[in-house]
């Protein structure tokens, strides 16, 4: 049913996914928001989604882990997609429906090897560096925007792992990634987080659940109401403290 609905909507037909069970939930590996630990998908946004389902009385649904670029393409072109965790950017506002926030503030950053001794005081200095990004990611868009649309120094990849490999080989000098999650991901990928440092901070944005435009807006209202209740609980504060320890 979900595949059939998605196919209809992808051909521009007016249609609405009208139940939470008919939605296709997708995420990426992006700790501490979403990641796999001991063969179980977890992370702040994953555990919040499960609590929203509980609040709604919805049986826990399957969550598929996809590369970000593919998941982003699917939510734009299929009618029954939920993608998280997504930065709510002005350029994305009208492309999706939203339930916010998972966290109210999330900063993109440019990261360098400490040994490179790179310092950046102004965005005008960025043009002298080759910078690795994740395709269709919010930090990529922010980087290109502050460079006035310049992309010639941007190397687009599908993952942080690919960018770290290029950084350590000297093929790029900086990589763009979320400031809050970079240390944990660097460690999980087998690198020493102490070898890297943030040298420039990009925009701070709320992180949210994004929904295809073809989903019944009434579902989004119900989801947002349930999310609001979850955010007010002691359990949410405990999850924040667990996944984002000081």
Q: How do the strands of the widest beta sheet line up side by side?
A: 4-1-5-10-6-9-7-8
- Percentage beta strand: 25-35%
Overall average pLDDT: 91
Helix content: 25-40%
Number of strands: 10
Radius of gyration: 19 Å
Order of helices and strands: HEEEHEHEEEHEHEHEHH
What class, by secondary structure content? Answer: alpha/beta
Largest sheet: 8 strands, mixed
- Give start-end ranges of low-pLDDT stretches: 1-14
Distance between the termini: 44 Å
Number of discrete helical segments: 8
Shape: globular
Could you explain how this protein is built, in words?
The radius of gyration is 19 Å and the shape is globular. It is of the alpha/beta class. The strands form two sheets. Strands 4-1-5-10-6-9-7-8 form an eight-stranded mixed β-sheet, sandwiched between helices. A two-stranded antiparallel sheet has the order 2-3. A hairpin with a 2-residue loop joins β2 and β3. The chain is 35% helix and 27% strand.
In short:
35% of the residues lie in helices and 27% in strands. With 246 residues, the chain is α/β, with parallel strands linked by helices.
What are the SSEs and their pairings?
Blueprint: H1 2-10, E1 24-27, E2 35-37, E3 40-42, H2 44-56, E4 63-65, H3 68-77, E5 81-87, E6 97-113, E7 131-134, H4 138-146, E8 154-157, H5 160-168, E9 174-178, H6 179-188, E10 196-211, H7 217-231, H8 234-243
Parallel strand pairs: 1-4, 1-5, 7-8, 7-9
Antiparallel strand pairs: 2-3, 5-10, 6-9, 6-10
Helix pairs in contact: 2-7
């Amino acid at each position: 049913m979900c595949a059939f609905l998605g196919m209809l909507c992808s051909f521009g037909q007016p249609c609405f996914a009208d139940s939470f069970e008919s939605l296709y939930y997708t995420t990426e590996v992006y700790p501490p928001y979403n990641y796999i630990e001991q063969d179980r998908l977890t992370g702040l946004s994953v555990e919040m989604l499960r609590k929203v389902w509980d609040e709604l009385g919805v049986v826990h649904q399957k969550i598929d882990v996809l590369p970000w670029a593919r998941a982003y393409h699917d939510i734009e072109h299929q009618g029954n997609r939920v993608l998280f965790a997504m930065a709510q950017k002005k350029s994305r506002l009208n492309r999706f429906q939203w339930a916010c926030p998972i966290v109210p503030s999330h900063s993109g950053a440019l990261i360098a090897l400490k040994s490179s001794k790179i310092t950046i005081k102004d965005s005008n200095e960025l043009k002298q560096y080759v910078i690795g990004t994740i395709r269709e990611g919010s930090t990529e868009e922010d980087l290109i925007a502050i460079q006035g649309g310049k992309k010639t120094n941007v190397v687009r990849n599908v993952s942080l792992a690919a960018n770290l490999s290029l950084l350590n080989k000297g093929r790029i000098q900086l990589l763009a990634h979320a400031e809050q999650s970079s240390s944990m991901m660097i460690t999980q990928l087998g690198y020493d987080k102490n070898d890297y440092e943030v040298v420039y901070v990009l925009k701070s944005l709320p992180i949210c659940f994004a929904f295809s435009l073809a989903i019944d807006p009434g579902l989004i209202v119900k989801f947002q109401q349930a999310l609001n209740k979850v955010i007010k609980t002691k359990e949410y504060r405990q999850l924040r403290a667990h996944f984002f320890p000081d």
